[in-house]
Amino acid sequence: MSKYTDPAKDLLERIGGKENVATVTHCATRMRFVLNDPKKANVEEIEAMKLVKGTFTQVGQFQVIIGNEVSSFYNEFVKYADLDSSSKEEANVAAKQNMNFLQRMIAHLADIFTPLIPALVVGGLILGFRNVIGDIKMLEDGTKSLIEVSQFWAGVHSFLWLIGEAVFHFLPVGITWAITKKMGTSQILGIVLGITLVSPQLLNAYGVAGAEEIPVWDFGFAQIEMIGYQAQVIPAILAGLVLAFLERKLRDIVPNAISMIVVPFFALIPAVLIAHTVLGPIGWNIGSFVSNVVYSGLTSSFGWLFAAIFGFAYAPLVITGLHHMTNAIDLQLMSELGGTNLWPMIALSNIAQGSAVLAMIYINRKNEEEKQVSIPAAVSCYLGVTEPAIFGINLKYGFPFLAAMIGSMTAAVISVGSNVMANSIGVGGLPGILSIQPQHMGMFAVAMAAAIVVPFILTIVFAKTGVSKVTFNKKAA
């Protein structure tokens, strides 16, 4: 008998029994249930379990925070409940039954970008490191950078661009692959389509503005501009969706005997043609418009107000799942402006949530049982994983969550007011400073200090003054 047997039995009973579980899977810290009737789950009794750090509902899934031991608990749970293990893809599909239209759209967007995040984080760290050794004049009385005095570091700087270019310039390949993977169509066709958007044969997207003449494919009766879409997000999304749509429709009407030949041919060629004649230019203009609006808003005289609203509201967006939209905006800003001033605020919000938990550790320093939950939550939050902190501690008490929102707002105003820019998406916590452009690291450090100090102090003040009756809807969908 495992130490998880009794907790598994209790959770199954309080979740509504085996018949109420459509699918169940797990991630790094959470059990993720799709329930046939979410109302049957007794949330109060589940959260009262010693093993459970908190619960929340997001994108149609009822999620129970277990912590680092979730994998072992999951194995015991499915064994005891006599349930089949489900993949995350199966759970996501099943979860659609509990979503409205907006939630489905956000879930689709998350499914596209989530597989790309590890590469984007690595790419961001690499770009940050290249900037440190290549752009900061740290040697010979501040007149030369490291690569100017060391052949070794010059070689490292050049070599690392191989990876940085692969991640960001060829990003459309990853996007079109992710779309075909999500839509259940031929992933290799998605990769080929993405390559046609960034082929060396095309005029590089970064060189279009300064080009004296744009090359064309000349068909006699028509010409198509040979423009690449390096680092472009929206053209890749539109092209990938068209390819997936064409392939799925062709599968329905083409006989199986010839589908292997006909379907790829009549899906890929029209998709590439439409991408370069219609979707590419339209997507480019849409992306430029979105990035210009966001950047103009953040750098205008009212940028502080935009920053204050975003910094204050980002954590509640995490609860609803709407924060996944920011990935596309960040990537578009990077392609248009060579960096993003939106992502630093996200990293600061995560730090602020961790700082509120740090204050709760201090307040409850004599409570050993509480520290078993709060200490791992604070550490994971400072490293960019906020769910244990938000749902296990801050929303449980209410006032730490509010303190963290205010601290995030303060730090965001400092960041935007100082024009802080990140190279790319990075680790959304304390290590996030490595993704900040070198000339802005100093002010980002000041913003980080605010994100640490303000929530910590406010949490203690709120606790002592009784501001603990603030309630938040933990089941925001």
Explain this structure to me?
The protein is mainly alpha-helical. The protein has three domains: 5-99, 2-Layer Sandwich (Gyrase A, domain 2); 169-297, no CATH class; 300-465. It contains 19 helices and six strands. It has helices spanning 5-14, 43-47, 70-81, 88-95, 101-113, 117-135, 146-149, 151-168, 171-183, 187-198, 234-253, 256-299, 303-320, 325-337, 343-363, 368-382, 387-397, 399-417, 441-465; strands at 21-26, 30-35, 54-58, 61-65, 216-218, 223-225. A four-stranded antiparallel beta sheet has the order 1-2-4-3, sandwiched between helices.
How would a crystallographer describe the biggest sheet? 4 strands, antiparallel
Proportion of β residues?
Answer: 5-15%
Structural class: mainly alpha
Coarse morphology: globular
Active site: 27 (phosphocysteine intermediate)
GO molecular function, one term: protein-phosphocysteine-trehalose phosphotransferase system transporter activity
Membrane topology: Multi-pass membrane protein
Transmembrane segments: 106-129, 159-179, 188-207, 227-246, 258-282, 302-322, 402-422, 442-463
